[in-house]
Design a protein that fits this description.
Radius of gyration of chain A: 13 Å
Radius of gyration of chain B: 13 Å
Helix content of chain B: under 10%
Order of helices and strands of chain B: EEEEEEEEEEE
Oligomer: heterodimer
Number of strands of chain B: 11
Number of strands of chain A: 11
Number of helices of chain B: 0
Structural class of chain B: mainly beta
Largest sheet of chain B: 7 strands, mixed
Strand content of chain A: over 45%
Distance between the termini of chain B: 36 Å
Distance between the termini of chain A: 41 Å
């Protein structure tokens, strides 16, 4: 079946450094790629998303890039802060509501 | 707005018992969905609804039933609980015309 791979599974960075999380998807019909942040004991929260007709999107310290040819998309966090520590999930979905596939998650730790 | 609310927060069931996980949203969102989250597997779609009276299956629907009698409520029923249904369950909703999902705080279910 369709799947989304996500790497790395854990990531530890020093405060102020950048963090990059990469995802690969298999369904070529995917056209919407959101990223969610999940803090301990809470539900996932959408932090940024990108659609297939855009190659890059930025929102303050967070950016997402998409390479549709290679079926890759990545999350970039610059100037990391301790409050960025959380689990991050990527997802890929098609226009069909039942085709929403999440990656397994990346646990990010930002060390003060 | 309270957003997406879920009850209960924690539940322990014995094998074979039934129960209903409650989900409600006060944002007038048409689309609602249920996910389960297991370690190392991300979130997997169980059932979803595009509006009152309309429900459909996601990736892992077996053992679960849903109904959508109102726009606000989307309960998830476990008919005969099994240890394999031990998981954290999240409900989510989306505004009309978008794919952004707003998640509830989750229900942690243990089946012994």
């Amino acid at each position: 079946g369709e799947n989304v791979e996500q790497h790395p599974s854990t990531l530890s960075v020093q405060e102020g450094d950048s963090a990059v999380i990469k995802c690969t998807y298999s369904d070529s019909a995917s056209n919407y790629f959101p990223w969610y942040k999940q803090e301990l004991g809470k539900g996932p929260q959408l932090i940024i998303d990108i659609r297939s007709n855009v190659g890059e999107k930025k929102d303050q310290r967070i950016a997402v890039t998409l390479n549709k040819t290679a079926k890759h998309f990545s999350l970039h966090i610059t100037e990391t802060q301790p409050e960025d520590s959380a689990v991050y999930f990527c997802a890929a979905s098609t226009a069909s509501y039942d085709k929403v596939i999440f990656g397994p998650g990346t646990s990010l730790s930002v060390i003060p | 707005n309270a957003g997406v609310t879920q009850t209960p927060k924690f539940q322990v069931l014995k094998t074979g018992q039934s129960m209903t996980l409650q989900c409600a949203q006060d944002m007038n969102h048409e689309y609602m969905s249920w996910y389960r989250q297991d370690p190392g597997m991300g979130l997997r779609l169980i059932h979803y609804s595009v509006g009152a009276g309309i429900t459909d299956q996601g990736e892992v629907p077996n053992g679960y039933n849903v109904s959508r009698s109102t726009t606000e409520d989307f309960p998830l029923r476990l008919l005969s609980a099994a240890p394999s249904q031990t998981s954290v369950y999240f409900c989510a909703s989306s505004p009309p015309g978008t794919r952004e999902q707003y998640f509830g705080p989750g229900t942690r279910l243990t089946v012994t």
